[in-house]
Amino acid sequence: MQKQWLLLLLVMSCCYYNIVQLLGAQNASTGLIEVDVGIILDLNNIVGKMSRTCIYMALDDFYALHDQNHTTRIVLHAIDSKSDVVEAASAAIDLLKNFQVQAILGPQKSTQADFMIDIGKKTQVPIISQATSPTLSPSDNPYFIRGGQNGSSQVEPLAAMVKAFGWREVVLIYEDTNFGRGIGPYLTDSFLGIGTQVRSRIAMSVSATDDHILRELNKLKTLQTRVFVVHMLPSLASRFFLKVKEVGMMSKGYVWIITDVLTILLDSLDAKVINSMQGVLGVKPYVPNSNELQNFTQRWRKRFRRENPDIDRFELNVLGLWAYDSATALAMAVERSGVGRPKFKKPLSTNNSTDLAAIGYSEMGPGLLQAIKKTKFRGLSGEFHLVDGQLQQSTFQIVNVIGKGETEIGSWAREYGMSKNKRLPFNKNDTNDKQDLEAIIWPGRLHVVPKGWEIPTGERKLRVGVPVKSGIDEFIKVERHPQTNAVIATGFCIAVFKEVMDHTLPFAVPYEFFPFETPDGEPAGDYNDLVYQIYLGKYDAVVGDVTILANRSNFVDFTLPFTESSIAMIVRIKDDGRKNAWIFMKPLKMNLWLTIVVFFVFTGFVVWVLEHRVNKEFRGPPSKQVGIIFWFSFSTLVFAHKEKLISNLSRFVVIVWVFVVMVLTSSYTASLTSMLTVHKLQPSVTDIRDLRKNGEYVGYHNGTFLKGLLKREEFNLPKSRNYSTFEQYDDALSRGSKNGGVAAIIHELPYVRLFLSNPKYCTKYTMVGPIYMTAGFGFAFPKGSPLVPDVSRAILNVTEGGKLTEIQRQWFGNEAKCAEQDGAKITSDSLDLESFKGLFLVAATSLISALIISLSTFLYDNRVILASDESSIWQKLIAMAKNFDEEEVNSYDASKKTNRANEVMVVPADCPQRPTRNNSQLAEWNFTDDDQGFSTTENSAPIHETIEIVETIEAKD
Known about the structure:
By secondary structure, the protein is an alpha/beta fold.
């Protein structure tokens, strides 16, 4: 009996144990399933205390709202991480081992979260943290939930703000931690996308001393860039900005921009620190205002002051709201996921295993994780919706530090851009203009927008390198003062530079010239070497006749050009040969001559065909008929044809042809007259490829990029010669390629125009080209220099204002008028067939149409012959030819002859009449085998006699 009771007790114990495991840690008094959740926060700072209060209030509000509907309740276990990475990791293991928590809220620091997310992955426990560092990726760590925004989302509004004010360079200052370094690449890429360069990156250690901060700031003062983007936590930022104020960098001309982590926590900074940040700009996440938020803020203040009576001044911010919404989302997910299985599944054997391995993994974790990711609701911070495991933020506030805190000056949204409107949606689309922000107080309490860079105070002037050259002084000339040895730079390029820098730029830029020369006063290299000195840091700019080239732009930035572009050739002029015995052939090109001859012959042939049967003047021996074909058509050239035309088709053809001849003769006369009366000049060379093919020598200016151009064009470099002066150009071109000179000199267009403007040279030489395109002369500056856009705009003002024309007239004088150059032609003046295609098309149409009509009529009249089946094709052709060769009496003349014959004699009634040339006559032709020709019937002889009688009587009349 005792054994039975013991067995029953054992069974009841097992059943009770299974029920407890199925129900979880069910509260005996309420019947709710309790789910343990850990909280790991830095409870020794204000942000941690604020977040803890928000989390507890979130659960209280949730369960108060769902008092009758929820079946679970979260039990919180909070541990202080003490601002230490190891403490945070230890706290996570403690919560998992001793409390078997199903989720962990926190930590807030990225360095702490970096350790804890691996623990969560190992134990399948979701880690919900507000850590914003982009280095923490939920996609790489599936059990990491970012209950806030990714820090990289703020780079777009930061870049939009920089773009709106036109700043071309920034300096990035960040704390040397994973949190600080994480945003660097995103900021750099974003700024490059708007054409702004990150000139320098300063990593500041969190343990940096005040002396170290001062040394770094003094280095920054020597830079031209005056726009600084600061990404630091409040602890380091407080000391940093105090030193910024101390060294005088929070004054006129400086721009300071802070990221959201500092902007959000401005309320936590000391008043002295806020005073040192006057004029600073910043961005922070936008939180839509609502009645729920206002009500919660009031309740939070009361509870926070009650829990932390020693804190005098602090306001609720978005970090606390994210913590509130994260706790609410977790409560919703726990409610939906359900709990009915053992919390943790431990390994079969715990011998020789670590504490973490002995904990096992949460069976509730995967389901809870999916429930959290699917949770979506309207929270206090806005829409709580996780995408790829993190909150999405598309709207930011832009604030200006003024007085005791911040003032909102505008907003930025990805869909709308920047706007001074405080509410969404904005009224305009994707704008990035500084006018879309409220008035800003800049450092130094100024209202003028800083230009973003300055020449460092107390530093050397802008070092401007200039080329040293001899020969052509109009563009650039460098001399030294005989007493002071000071550099004196003159010339067209220097004059333009001084006009831009001294009179056009809206600000003063001191500068001085440094000649690029050796100690002996000789050029220290070519122009490529000179430009490369900027890249090496020797010069801050290069001014001179420096051509903008692609290979040079790899090392420097050029301004807009201030001269014409392109490369041309200078070649000798040759007379076009007015004394040439065959000059009368030159007005027309050979293809036009041949076409005219063909049409002359064709026109004569067509007229002969049309007139041969009806016009005696187009009949006779074959030699006469061939002669008349050529004579008639060519006689129309001088309108000397005397033959009378009978056929209307012939008259139509001749009318058209005479018009064509008139146009051709007029054009020929005008062209020949121009050739014989106007002294025209021709270049000796018209194509640079001809020089290469013929092995001619080519000249170029010494020290320029033109030697490399010839090399790229596969010129034989030994066949090229360099010169420095215009006199050397003249001598080399005069001697020619075969006498120690050159056939042509290639140079940039401004130099070519200057050379040909000299009356001494314009009568002997001419320009061919441009043969290659270049961008012209420009001023060179270091890559990313903020001076480039300002100087480029100044060059445009000088060019459009007419000042550049005055400078050109000052250094080059008025352009010489050279009559010979005005008449120089590069292409031939001969008339081409292309100019008369339409004219010949009209003539050909008239000729062919008349020929077709005549041939059709003739074939119709001889259709009986063509239809005969008794003869061969050859017999038919012979018959047709004899018919065509037989003269056809003109109808008008035949009628007159018949009338006169009837008046003189009476033909007997029985006398057969002469048949007319009609179908009945054609029907009487008979073909024989003996005669390949044709014969008439017996009645044909009397008919011929009758015709002779008529003709005799007519003759007697």
